[in-house]
Design brief:
14 strands; binds thymidine-5'-phosphate; Phosphorylase Kinase, domain 1; 240 residues
């Protein structure tokens, strides 16, 4: 599939048109940002890892009944995806307290929840992606009631499948962020990416952080952590 005009450049990816109006090419960059773009940096090799990890996990999720935008990995950094209109919600699932949950509610990190939580942020950089509930999402007409039900069902299913997969790789899935999109026929599919940029992944034995928190919090060893989590995935993904 030939790469056409660049349609969009985000913080971590670029998006290109193709000759097929229903398909796009995403290209993963090594650029990293945090705190709504305030902190900027580069994580050498991140684009390749996020591209391959996201594709491998989406392929697995498709097999388990979660529809995704994934079509075909084109090369190390580029993937052919179905064109969607993104539902402007960041859907966050948490299994263990960390990050903004720990900060907002005044608890330590590492508390294991009895059941996963779900929350929504309004995807709007100018407003700093404010936390909203389902009623706000409906009032703002970001999605229909039926779409929100579908998104919640898929998000919890993704959590069950990812939790199981990472556990088998010696990794604890703490929390993650998903984005969904609508195909031209209105069908909801999982879009964006699933990577160490969008998940918190802790080594089950040592608690070592193997995700973007190493960059956000200046913990060092960022590149090594991305390589290590990718190695873990590659050892287990064939059987998954
Ligand atoms: P949080 O604890 O900072 O709210 O983050 C929850 C999860 O969402 C965590 O796995 C990191 C991910 N995340 C993103 O993918 N993009 C973002 O812009 C933010 C703030 C978090």
């Amino acid at each position: 599939m030939k790469k056409g005009a660049q349609l969009y450049e985000g913080k971590a990816k670029k998006v290109y048109a193709t000759e097929d109006p229903e398909l796009l090419i995403v290209s993963y960059k090594d650029d990293a940002t945090a705190f709504n773009g305030l902190k900027r940096g580069t994580i050498e090799g991140k684009g390749v890892i996020n591209n391959k990890m996201s594709n491998a996990l989406m392929r697995m999720l498709e097999k388990r009944g979660v529809p995704t935008h994934f079509v075909e990995e084109l090369n190390d950094r580029e993937t052919l995806v179905k064109k969607v209109s993104i539902v402007p919600l960041e859907v966050i699932i948490r299994n263990i307290s960390a990050g903004s949950f720990a900060k907002n509610y005044g608890v330590e990190e590492g508390i294991v929840f009895d059941a996963p939580t779900i929350e929504f942020s309004y995807k709007n950089d100018a407003l700093g992606d404010p936390l909203i509930n389902e009623y706000h999402a409906l009032a703002l007409k970001l999605a229909t009631p039926k779409e929100i039900e579908t998104i919640k069902r898929y998000a919890f299913k993704v959590n069950e499948e990812l939790k199981k997969f990472w556990l088998s790789s010696g990794v604890t899935l703490v929390d993650f962020k998903l984005e969904f999109g609508r195909l031209s026929d209105g069908k909801i599919v999982l879009a964006d990416e699933i990577s160490p940029d969008t998940c918190r992944l802790w080594d089950s034995a040592t608690g070592k952080k193997l995700d973007k928190d190493r960059f956000r919090r200046d913990l060092g060893g960022v590149e090594d952590a991305y390589r290590e989590i990718m190695d873990r995935l590659e050892k287990n993904i064939e059987e998954a």
